[in-house]
């Protein structure tokens, strides 16, 4: 279907603005029976809903709780299953690392092994994040492999990411996690006949050998398990697929990385939500499509803080008049996934979406919220179908067939 | 999926009537906030909606504005992307030409070229339709190719269609339109090793050579650009796929051609909408499935005439008691696509649909319109899924699996 869309493109200089409120979707508070979005006083979002149409999107599929990577790929019009990106690459992007075509990334789990070399804890007792940072830095400074540039970066707790940079590396190699305790870690093996895979396996096994030496006196994190090896293999760019010059305004490395992956121009890190909106006029000036990401809604949801999520939504609503001043032919507001404060985590629930502008059908929805969105003119659909409808609404798609 | 449906068929002598109101779907008038269909007084459609169920269909996919060809194939239960028909064939059908398996059709754009042979206007100044007819007739009577029977028929303005009839022609050849001005036209080249493609390329290039001679003194239309070559390669017939003897009642050549393509019995051209409905008893007498096409709703939408579209809908509604008299076990009313008067063109918006009869779930919908249809029991689904649900509603599909 994305080939059909690409074949119908024509440029008419219209501009699209996509506001992603991370983890937007919520669940109703049992007393008020209203979600975070329904509780928040959001006069501008409500007016936009009444001037446009609302609906609900499923990021990956019904019942699937997505991570930020596939959820954003779907928002950007990619198939989050078939066009998904290797886990190692997502971890590297999330850790703020830039990747090149010479790089292969892998996820590290620090683990504990006994004197027989068998794994006794696959997560090294879930060491604290500071501990994780300390041992990651030991590896970053200690491991030396000829001709290979190495970056090791801690994530949370026992998790870290390693990027191997050298000519001729390939990502088609196996994981080392034995998946159960009581067994020794596996060796990294090439999964294809490709010379890059053989070379990568050698390099990774040497990395593990040296890591064991460096960590041998650690009580908990005395072993590394590597998994999710992946080279930098970006999908067709946003411009190739949708004919749009795109710009991204986002505070967190993961989202800037995802925008880079699809070839968007990425604005520098912003200190606040307000600063993000301040960048809008410049971003819209020389792009056809601007993606602005607000992370704080998700963080409040993850913390189980219903009230803080409400208050962040109200803060964002107060900044929306700047969007109207900046001018865009179509405004879309949605989330990458739901993060109900009641669940303290990402969830599988569909996410409210709002279209305002272009040839969007104006429906009877008078407010922006989960309940109203169920009756909106956009209906319920997979997130990856946002982009074709956005292009259609601004008149960028020719007719299909005579 | 269509193979599964075919495998479950059994004939129970029930009859299905499909009424296609071309371009049915609309957008709300900003003052009344009602669409054309919602504005029209349609007591019979409203009663049918209250006796049956409504919903919304997407002809090709969200965001895709379809032409009549793919939109009708979807209504007839074919995949409008993978089973789509070549552009040349659709143009030939639209021009009222009958095709055989010995034919290859191509679209012609009359164009202007300068003394260096470079294209200066790919549409010959969008010559008037009478001018287009005049030059098309010059070609029809002037070009002679040994062993090839030629038909040239004008469409609108600078567009025409040519059908080459001979043994051993194949449609896999390239277009000649250079897509930009300042370049000479391309040669027709075979795209496969197939002998039919080589022969077709020779014939087409000879056609172009002679056409240049015939048109050399024309000021504007002194060149022909050929594109969309396609042989007559119909999909499995409606009867093979759905076990239904089908008849088509339609006033315009394109729709009669599409019905021919899937093997329907096609009634002769009718002078009016009323005459179309008069043909119903005869059509239903010896067919299991009757398709009746009303073109005027689309034409009014294309003209931006909201009031005329409303009034045609009211005219059609007044004829519907004849459908009840003629008797059919299931009546379906929908459109091939939306043509909102506010847009003066086909659009990407979903189209209302109504099922009445058989085991259709009777929902709470009390009127037939876009807003009510969003809450109807049929929900929202792709047009190509109408046929399986129609067969199911009249009990023509066996159980799948034990």
Largest binding interface between chains: A-B, 27 and 36 residues
Q: Based on CA inertia axes, which overall geometry of chain A fits?
A: globular
The CATH H-level homologous superfamily of the largest domain in chain A: Alkaline Phosphatase, subunit A
Mean pLDDT of chain A: 95
Derived from helix and strand composition plus strand pairing, the structural class of chain A reads alpha/beta
How do you describe this structure in short?
The first copy, chain A, is 33% helix and 19% strand.
Features:
homodimer, 402 residues, Alkaline Phosphatase, subunit A, 2 domains, eight-stranded mixed beta sheet, 13 strands, 19% strand
Characterization of the model:
Two copies of one chain form a homodimer. Chain A has helices at 2-7, 36-39, 43-51, 68-75, 87-94, 129-142, 195-214, 238-242, 253-261, 273-278, 280-285, 296-302, 306-319, 321-326, 370-373, 386-393, and strands at 16-21, 53-58, 103-113, 119-121, 149-154, 159-165, 223-231, 246-250, 265-266, 289-294, 330-334, 351-357, 379-382. By secondary structure, chain A is of the alpha/beta class. Chain A has two domains: 2-83 and 236-393, Alkaline Phosphatase, subunit A; 89-231, no CATH class. In chain A, strand 8 (246-250), helix 9 (253-261) and strand 9 (265-266) form a beta-alpha-beta unit. In chain A, helix 5 packs across helix 9 (253-261) and helix 12 (296-302) runs antiparallel to helix 13. The A-B interface holds A 1, 4-5, 8, 359, 361-364, 375, 377, 379, 381, 385, 387-393, 397-402 and B 27-28, 30, 33, 56, 60-71, 80-81, 84, 87, 90-91, 94, 340, 343, 346-350, 370-371, 374-375, 380.
């Amino acid at each position: 279907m994305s080939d059909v869309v690409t074949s119908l493109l024509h440029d008419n200089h219209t501009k699209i603005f996509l506001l992603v409120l991370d983890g937007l979707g919520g669940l109703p508070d049992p007393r008020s029976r209203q979600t975070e979005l329904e509780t928040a006083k959001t006069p501008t979002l409500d007016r936009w809903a009444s001037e446009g149409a609302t609906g609900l999107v499923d990021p990956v599929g019904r019942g699937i709780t997505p991570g930020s990577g596939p959820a954003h790929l779907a928002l950007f019009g990619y198939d989050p299953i078939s066009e998904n990106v290797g886990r190692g690459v997502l971890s590297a992007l999330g850790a703020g690392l830039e990747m090149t075509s010479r790089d292969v990334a892998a996820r590290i789990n620090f683990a504990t092994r006994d004197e027989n070399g068998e794994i006794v804890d696959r997560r090294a007792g879930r060491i604290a994040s500071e501990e994780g940072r300390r041992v990651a830095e030991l590896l970053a400074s200690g491991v030396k492999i000829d001709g290979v540039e190495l970056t090791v970066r801690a994530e949370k707790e026992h998790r870290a990411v390693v990027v191997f940079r050298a000519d001729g590396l390939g990502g088609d190699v196996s994981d080392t996690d034995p998946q159960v305790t009581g067994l020794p870690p596996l060796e990294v093996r090439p999964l294809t006949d490709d010379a890059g895979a053989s070379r990568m396996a050698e390099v990774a096994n040497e990395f593990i050998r040296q890591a064991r030496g460096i960590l041998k006196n650690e009580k908990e994190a005395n072993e590394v398990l590597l998994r999710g090896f992946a080279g930098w293999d970006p999908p067709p760019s946003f411009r190739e697929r949708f004919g749009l010059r795109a710009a991204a305004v986002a505070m967190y490395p993961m989202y800037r990385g995802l925008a880079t992956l699809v070839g968007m121009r990425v604005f520098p890190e912003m200190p606040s939500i307000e600063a993000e909106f301040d960048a809008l006029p410049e971003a819209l000036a020389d792009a056809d499509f601007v993606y602005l990401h607000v992370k704080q809604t998700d963080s409040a949801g993850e913390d189980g803080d219903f009230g803080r999520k409400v208050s962040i939504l109200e803060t964002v609503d107060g900044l929306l008049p700047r969007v109207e001043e900046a001018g865009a032919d179509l405004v879309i507001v949605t989330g990458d996934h739901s993060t109900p404060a009641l669940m303290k985590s990402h969830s599988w629930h569909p996410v409210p979406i709002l279209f305002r502008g272009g040839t969007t059908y104006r429906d009877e929805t008078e407010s922006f919220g989960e309940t109203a969105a169920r009756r909106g003119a956009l209906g319920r659909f997979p997130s990856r179908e946002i982009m074709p409808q956005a292009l259609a609404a601004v008149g960028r798609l020719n007719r299909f067939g005579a």
